[in-house]
């Protein structure tokens, strides 16, 4: 029986930053990192596991000799511990080379599943990063109807009321949408959307790439059928991670070697996994556990409860630091802030449209010790839908829980001078 939710204390930032070797690197001294949405710093636990694997385990795993058995056991540990943190069965977690590749494979499986079923449809949004949009849109080549759930062109908001009419006829097989956009950043009501889709007989695919860095998902609470995210944005190695719930995973056709079709976590990974990076992914679970123990001590909390408690820690820190930045940007009349102005309603990924190209502005910020980015960030569809000039792009400043208040103040000061 689950325990009561664990109250969130204030994040121990000194402890957190001690877990990331980047903060000790001479190359990073004097720099404030605000391009975390493109990839986070790896935590020490991941770096240590990856180094250990390459030095001491780099053989073909699962063979009947000691080093190989240990290598396989570390890979299995990563899957098991991440599954426990997210509240799913071990074999419902799959690794792949990237989220874009994982989505492509899943879309191909759905294409095969729907072949010959006339009148079927999928729903996509124009709020998504292209990874969770383009692959599903290509199903139109097979005669599958693609229905677009459109955002509000002024705010970027994805309104569930606009989804309802798309589901009314019961023909939709899958609804693909983001937990939050990588430029709008509003946190979408995943639980509500998944319930709507389920009631209409549709599966759901949630792109969590832009949200998971701010807290690993509680999959049973969300109610989705597929959840996708990228380990290199959640303090880990360059792997795509996908949770595929068993009913859907067994319904879709096998995409792997025919003799692996009976193993759920192998059904949607046609290529062999990167052994070292899979094993190193257990370091992400080590990090979550370390944060929990530091802030709550040793308790009998389940892995999912520990995950949810750390999620609350991360979000508390991020919301506290984000609101001053949003207030500052909202007070300027020379830019357009995309997404909500309330820090509690969004992730700390902040995109602004300027009256000039964004990349030179990012370069000017770099000269003041601010690492940020300019461009479209593969979010061409939402930017076009909101009327943003793609030749200018947007300036994006993104942070996570290890960012300090001093770094946010440094960013605001640099923006004042550059803009």
Automatic annotation (TrEMBL):
<keyword id="KW-0808">Transferase</keyword>
<dbReference type="GO" id="GO:0008483">
    <property type="term" value="F:transaminase activity"/>
</dbReference>
<keyword id="KW-0663">Pyridoxal phosphate</keyword>
<feature type="domain" description="Aminotransferase class V">
    <location>
        <begin position="33"/>
        <end position="411"/>
    </location>
</feature>
<dbReference type="InterPro" id="IPR015424">
    <property type="entry name" value="PyrdxlP-dep_Trfase"/>
</dbReference>
<dbReference type="InterPro" id="IPR000192">
    <property type="entry name" value="Aminotrans_V_dom"/>
</dbReference>
<protein>
    <submittedName>
        <fullName>Aminotransferase class V-fold PLP-dependent enzyme</fullName>
    </submittedName>
</protein>
<dbReference type="Pfam" id="PF00266">
    <property type="entry name" value="Aminotran_5"/>
</dbReference>
<dbReference type="InterPro" id="IPR015422">
    <property type="entry name" value="PyrdxlP-dep_Trfase_small"/>
</dbReference>
<keyword id="KW-0032">Aminotransferase</keyword>
<dbReference type="InterPro" id="IPR015421">
    <property type="entry name" value="PyrdxlP-dep_Trfase_major"/>
</dbReference>
């Amino acid at each position: 029986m689950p325990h009561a939710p664990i109250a969130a204390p204030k994040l121990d930032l000194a402890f957190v930053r001690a877990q990331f070797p980047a903060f000790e690197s001479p190359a990073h001294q004097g720099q404030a990192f605000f391009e975390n949405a493109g990839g986070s710093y790896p935590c020490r636990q991941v770096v240590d596991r990856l180094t250990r694997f390459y030095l001491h385990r780099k053989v073909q795993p699962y063979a009947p000799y000691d080093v190989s058995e240990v290598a396989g056991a570390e890979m299995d540990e990563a899957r098991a511990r991440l599954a426990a943190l997210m509240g799913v069965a071990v074999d419902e977690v799959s690794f792949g080379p990237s989220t874009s590749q994982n989505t492509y494979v899943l879309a191909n499986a759905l294409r095969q599943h729907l072949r010959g079923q006339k009148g079927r449809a999928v729903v996509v949004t124009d709020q998504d990063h292209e990874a969770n949009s383009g692959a599903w849109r290509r199903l139109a080549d097979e005669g599958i109807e693609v229905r677009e759930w459109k955002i509000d062109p002024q705010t970027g908001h994805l309104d569930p009321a606009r989804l309802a009419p798309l589901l009314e006829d019961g023909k939709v097989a899958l609804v693909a949408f983001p937990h939050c956009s990588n430029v709008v950043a509003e946190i979408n009501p995943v639980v509500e959307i998944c319930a709507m889709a389920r009631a209409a007989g549709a599966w759901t695919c949630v792109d969590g790439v832009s949200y998971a860095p701010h807290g690993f998902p509680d999959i049973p609470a969300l109610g989705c059928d597929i959840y996708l995210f990228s380990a290199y944005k959640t303090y880990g190695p360059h792997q795509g991670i996908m949770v595929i719930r068993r009913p859907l995973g067994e319904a879709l056709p096998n995409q792997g070697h025919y003799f692996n079709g009976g193993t759920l976590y192998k059904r949607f990974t046609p290529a062999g996994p990167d052994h070292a990076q899979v094993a190193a992914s257990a370091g992400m679970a080590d990090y979550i556990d370390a944060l929990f123990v530091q802030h709550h001590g040793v308790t009998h909390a389940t892995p999912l409860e520990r995950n949810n408690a750390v999620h609350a820690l991360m979000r508390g820190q991020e919301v506290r630091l984000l609101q001053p930045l949003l207030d500052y940007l909202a007070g300027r009349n020379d830019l357009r802030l995309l997404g909500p102005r309330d820090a509690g309603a969004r992730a700390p990924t902040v995109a602004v449209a300027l009256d000039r190209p964004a990349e030179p502005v990012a370069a000017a910020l770099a000269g003041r010790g601010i690492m940020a980015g300019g461009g479209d960030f593969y979010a061409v569809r939402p930017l076009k839908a909101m009327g943003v000039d793609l030749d200018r792009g947007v300036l994006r400043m993104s942070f996570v829980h290890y960012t300090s208040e001093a770094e946010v103040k440094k960013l605001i000061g640099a923006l004042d001078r550059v803009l």
